[in-house]
Q: What sequence folds into this?
């Protein structure tokens, strides 16, 4: 079985002896975080109660609220 070629679009060549850079691990969707994004990142179902929880959390913490939930 042939070995796949490294992805040339990656800024760092993958190496089994090197940790993945932190900026490639985070999955934050950007500056616009919706209540649905926050609910899903928390592993919850999208329900009216959970959306209300997410709206309150975003109002209190802003888009950084999702950073606490994502790797």
A:
């Amino acid at each position: 079985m042939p070995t796949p070629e490294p992805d040339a679009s990656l800024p760092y060549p993958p190496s089994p002896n090197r940790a993945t850079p932190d900026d490639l691990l985070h999955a934050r969707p950007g500056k616009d975080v919706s209540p649905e994004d926050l609910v899903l990142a928390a592993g919850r179902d999208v329900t009216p109660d959970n959306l209300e929880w997410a709206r309150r959390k975003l109002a209190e913490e802003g888009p950084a609220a999702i950073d606490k939930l994502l790797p």
Observations:
- Helices lie at 22-25, 35-41, 48-61.
- The chain has a mean pLDDT of 78.
- The radius of gyration is 17 Å.
- Residues 28 and 67 are 7 Å apart (CA to CA).
